[in-house]
Design brief:
6-stranded mixed beta sheet; 5-stranded mixed beta sheet; D-Maltodextrin-Binding Protein, domain 2; alpha/beta; 14 helices; 11 strands
């Protein structure tokens, strides 16, 4: 904790030198509603909450309020309603929200995480290879979320169909901790989910990982979590978004250099939010499957959009994602970070 506090203090001093002093002065206090999930792939958000990282960097004029979600589609709906300004979310809900709003609702401004997703099968399920899900009950966290798209895309590639489309695979949507109950009661046979639930299912229900999603992507690179901003907030407060992305980029660098402490801070905040911390072995396994990076991973996200379109999640009209990304904030933050290494 001490090293991160010193980092924040030092970075804050640097920020005073680099940041225009009137970033907030003309508008006074700015309310920022930020959202995240209690997942390991959202660890930077939890660490930031625990240490008040963004409050330190943006200063007392920024009034930050955090809200916790458990799946992407619900979080995007909150953004549509103007209840969230900055959101840590998976690529597919972000893409769907962009298209549903005809490009008016949001912009992706930075990357957060790659990896951490896997297809987990229940003990005695009889599933030895993916094609064995025929006649089985399979789950994802929520319809339309990133893991849901990954499941349906792979099913399409392998010639499998959901029961609702005349196939033989029953698909359910099960949030967070309910996944543990569903496995323990043998209500489902497999689930495509994300950390920490991957490690917990394996350790606590004697399930096994059939494959990690990274095995299905070139070089194992795919986006799990992105940093998204409500467009109206971005247009009204570009200086705030710039400072947030700058602080976010600095935090990602800190996590890479202080991984042990980052794990501890994340776990403490996870316990605070959910009532239960991860045992050390789960924590290590979870972080071992994830790369935290501010890289926006635009090619991978556009490929994810293509896959979502192919399974019918994005409608039949031609998809225009030309303005999904607004990378000027990240590019400036990256440049400043490189100048002060």
């Amino acid at each position: 904790m001490k090293s991160l506090k010193w980092f924040l203090i030092i970075f804050g001093i640097i920020g005073i030198v680099l940041t225009p002093q009137n970033a907030f002065s003309e508008k006074g206090t700015v309310k920022i509603r930020a959202g995240h999930f209690p997942n390991v792939t959202h660890a930077p958000a939890l660490i930031a909450k625990a240490t008040k990282h963004f409050e330190t960097h943006l200063g007392p004029e920024a009034d930050i309020e955090w809200k916790t979600f458990h799946a992407g589609p619900g979080a995007i709906e909150a953004l549509f309603a103007g209840e969230i300004d900055i959101l840590y979310v998976g690529p597919n809900p972000a893409i769907n929200g962009f298209i549903k709003s005809k490009g008016e609702a949001l912009r992706v401004v930075s990357g957060v995480a790659s990896g951490g997703s896997a297809f987990v099968v229940r003990k005695n399920s009889g599933i030895q290879k993916f094609e064995d899900i025929q006649g089985k009950k399979v789950a994802t966290p929520q319809k339309g979320n990133t893991q849901d798209v990954a499941l349906l895309h792979l099913m399409r590639e392998r010639g499998l169909k959901p029961r609702a489309q005349g196939g033989k695979v029953d698909i359910f949507n099960i949030n967070a901790g309910d996944q543990m109950i569903a496995f323990a009661k043998e209500q489902i046979d497999a689930i495509w989910t994300v950390e920490p639930w991957v490690s917990r299912l394996v350790a606590e229900t004697d399930a096994k990982i059939l494959f990690e999603e990274s095995e299905l992507w070139p070089n194992g690179d795919y986006a799990t979590t992105l940093l998204v901003v409500r467009k109206k907030f971005m247009d009204g407060h570009p200086e705030v978004v710039q400072q947030w992305v700058k602080a976010h980029t600095a935090l990602m660098n800190w996590i890479e250099e202080h991984l042990t402490e980052a794990k501890r801070l994340f776990n403490e905040e996870l316990k605070h939010e959910t009532g239960k911390a991860l045992p050390p072995v789960y924590l290590d396994q979870s972080f071992g499957r994830i790369i935290f990076t501010a890289d926006p991973m635009e090619p991978q996200v556009l490929e994810a959009a293509k896959r979502a379109s192919e399974i019918g999640y994005l409608g039949r009209n031609k998809i225009d994602l030309n303005h999904l990304y607004e990378l000027s904030f990240w590019e400036q933050a990256k440049t400043e970070s490189q100048q002060h290494v």
